[in-house]
Amino acid sequence: MPYIVLEGPDGAGKTTQIALLKKALAASQHPHVFTREPGGTPIGDELRALLLEGKVDKMDAITEMFILTASRHELARQVIRPALKKGEIVISDRCFLSTYVFQGYGGGQDKEVIKTLTHIAMEETMPDLILILDLTPEEGLRRKQAQVEEGLKETRMEDKGEAYHRRNYQGYMDYARENPETTALIKASDIAENVHKAIIETLNTHFGLGLSPQS
């Protein structure tokens, strides 16, 4: 069974799309497991809280990179590989690509070092397909600001400014262009229902899962 990842910049609507995809897989009765990065294990969840809720000026990109790598290794060891061995579909909310983009492009860290750390952490257990929700940084930040105004807690990732998010967006576009066999760009500026339909169509085309769109 495939290891599938949903990726994208802040504000792209991953949470909504993950929820809809959960419904689609439940309706299909395919054996599956959902997880997330950072997190997905007891250690990973503690590291996730540290990353998302810590002060923006207390942690640099190198520190972030090693924390993320540690969380990723635990997830691969405890969740992803065991599920794949049991024949389950694995769906992850983010993967190594977030580190490659956020720390490599956004934080200016050496991308080759990030690739090396990724292979150490994952031990060759790499995604079969990464779905990248394609949303411009301007629209993403507008959506995130609207969420904050509605009472959603702001995280340290939103504190980093527009230039940071522009670099991240470029990172996603570069990766998709360089890895067409294992990535698919999904237009995320459309309404959630249409984005979901595009995701379902892409998964059915790649893996023949026979999934039906949900609402």
Quick structural gist:
By secondary structure, the protein is of the alpha/beta class. It contains eight helices and five strands. It has a single domain (3-204), classed as P-loop containing nucleotide triphosphate hydrolases (Rossmann fold, 3-Layer(aba) Sandwich).
Radius of gyration: 16 Å
CATH topology: Rossmann fold
CATH-level-2 architecture: 3-Layer(aba) Sandwich
Biggest sheet strand line-up: 2-3-1-4-5
Largest sheet report: 5 strands, parallel
Q: How many domain regions?
A: 1
Approximate shape: globular
Portion of residues within helices: 55-70%
Question: Would you kindly provide a written description of the structure presented here, covering whatever features stand out?
Answer:
This protein is of the alpha/beta class and 215 residues long. The protein has one domain (3-204): 3-Layer(aba) Sandwich (Rossmann fold), CATH 3.40.50.300. Helix content is 56%, strand content 12%. It is built from 8 helices and 5 strands. The protein has a 5-stranded parallel β-sheet with strand order 2-3-1-4-5, with helices on both faces. The model has no long low-confidence stretch (mean pLDDT 92).
